[in-house]
Design a protein that fits this description.
Rossmann fold, Helicase, Ruva Protein, domain 3, 5-stranded parallel β-sheet, 16 strands, globular
């Protein structure tokens, strides 16, 4: 078995770092910068794994892998990419890639993956028709979303149960839709049910169906969501709000793979993939006896955490433009978003997360008279939303300090300490407000150590929880 690695990377600085790290692990590395060089080396050498970038000078590193698969069907391939979209992650997975790493990546994790690939040397299926990734609803290239994309790609070719966690409005159902659309069950139905929106006495009938006469008002047989989703995916939203009795029946269905309609005697085999979601922390509910622990472990096979919008502010600009484009497709006027408008949108708390941002952009698309939307127009629409929390206005500390010096004449030798006492607390509060109460980001904004910030917050009696944006 060859332990030599072929690295295809046209960024020399990245290639040097990867090569040094792999060689430190005892792995020999051949490096080239193009698809043509890669093919020449593969024709004359034997390799334990291939690491390749996506965007290369002479072509697409993913599209060009079809030929590699033909000649080297068992060669493990690890794909590196700065094109950090779900599209790229899915394309990488469809090639049968052993692993996919968005840039920047954890070097130690990459080295471990290469070592595992060399040792596994597992055959991979190639040539399968991949899913259509056009129109996927997930948008964003932030670091926070890269983990989501990688987890999605890892569950596409299996039927493991997925539990999507995250605040309201973060896009949990979109994750479920992506898993369905891109996975092996995409030809089957996708059925979504919000368990929080169904009265407790009706939820079992909604999920499992009922027979005629099963209860007052049951005038005909009803086919439940499990049967409707047969062969496809069943998305159980807000699973944390499901009544205990229904939880028991759900657990039994998941364990046995069979259901029984309410009022019925026949057991019906089901073939569905379960994706559940909740905005609640289920562990306190388990401790309080409101959620079954065994059901939690049955659902929490593969957890996917959706980040709140405040943790992916880099995506606010692309998301906003995406929503304006969608609005235009739906017949609303065309608008262009200026850079200063994006900067203002990025400073908003968006407690309703992506859903709130979407609604706001559609409102502007409908009502804004100007084609080009700048910060002034955005501010005007924000002012018309009195119940929406506003980001703090920019603070001109130079002007504030000048005004303070005009009004205050501290004794000689005390100017520094007097100024510090006057401005340190509002400065820290401003930093916390700007970062949504995130102490690490506030410390980075201020340029001080996080422990120093934490100590001073205690001394100044500043509660960072006051600045946390909650859903």
């Amino acid at each position: 078995m060859s332990h030599k690695i072929l690295l295809v990377e046209d960024d020399l600085s990245i290639a040097i770092v990867i090569k040094a790290a792999l060689e430190a692990e005892g792995l020999a590395v051949d490096h080239c910068e193009s698809i043509a060089e890669r093919d020449e080396l593969l024709a004359i050498g034997t390799y334990g794994a291939l690491l390749t970038d996506v965007v290369l000078d002479d072509g697409d590193g993913i599209e060009s892998l079809a030929g590699v698969r033909t000649g080297h069907p068992n060669l493990p391939i690890i794909i590196l990419s700065a094109q950090n979209t779900l599209d790229t992650a899915v394309r990488a997975t469809d090639t049968g890639a052993f692993e996919y790493f968005p840039k920047p990546f954890d070097l130690d994790e990459l080295v471990r993956a290469v070592r595992q690939a060399v040792e596994a040397r597992a055959p991979v299926e190639a040539g399968q028709q991949g899913p259509d990734v056009d129109g996927l609803p997930l948008v964003g290239r932030s670091q926070a979303m890269q983990g989501v994309y990688r987890m999605i790609t890892r569950v596409l070719h299996n039927d493991l149960t997925v539990l999507v966690l995250g605040e309201s409005g973060t896009g949990k159902e979109l994750v479920a839709e992506a898993i369905h659309q891109l996975g092996a069950r995409r030809a089957g139905p996708f059925v979504a049910v919000n368990t929080a929106a169904i009265p407790g006495e009706l939820i079992e009938s909604e999920l499992f169906g009922h027979e005629k006469g099963a209860f007052t008002g049951a005038v005909a047989r009803n086919i439940g969501k499990f049967e409707q989703a047969n062969g496809g995916t069943l998305f159980l939203d807000e699973i944390g709000d499901m009544p205990l009795e229904a939880q028991t029946r759900l657990l039994r269905a998941l364990q046995s793979g069979r259901i029984r309609r309410v009022g019925g005697q026949e057991e019906i085999a089901i073939n569905v993939r379960i994706v559940a979601a909740t905005h609640r922390d289920l562990r306190p509910l388990i401790a309080d006896g409101r959620f079954r622990e065994d059901l939690y472990y049955r659902l929490n096979v593969v957890p996917i955490q959706m980040p709140p919008l405040r943790e992916r502010t880099d995506d606010i600009g692309p998301l906003s433009r995406h929503f304006l484009a969608l609005a235009q497709k739906e017949g609303l006027p065309r608008h262009i978003l200026e850079k200063d408008a994006v900067a203002l949108l990025e400073r908003q708390p968006w407690r309703g997360n992506v859903r709130e941002l979407r609604n706001f952009m559609y409102r502007m698309a409908l009502l804004a008279r100007e084609e080009a939307i700048d910060a002034g127009i955005v501010a005007g629409f924000l002012d018309d939303m009195p119940d929406t929390p506003r980001a703090p206005r920019e603070v001109n500390f130079d002007a504030a300090l000048h005004a303070w010096l005009l009004d205050v004449t501290p004794p000689d030798g005390t100017l520094y300490h007097s100024a510090l006492a006057a401005f340190e607390k509002p400065l820290f509060e401003h930093a916390l407000a700007e970062t949504g109460g995130n102490q690490l980001k506030a410390a980075q904004l201020l340029g001080i150590n996080r422990n120093t910030l934490r100590k001073r917050l205690g001394e100044l009696a500043i509660d960072p929880e006051r600045f946390t944006h909650r859903a």
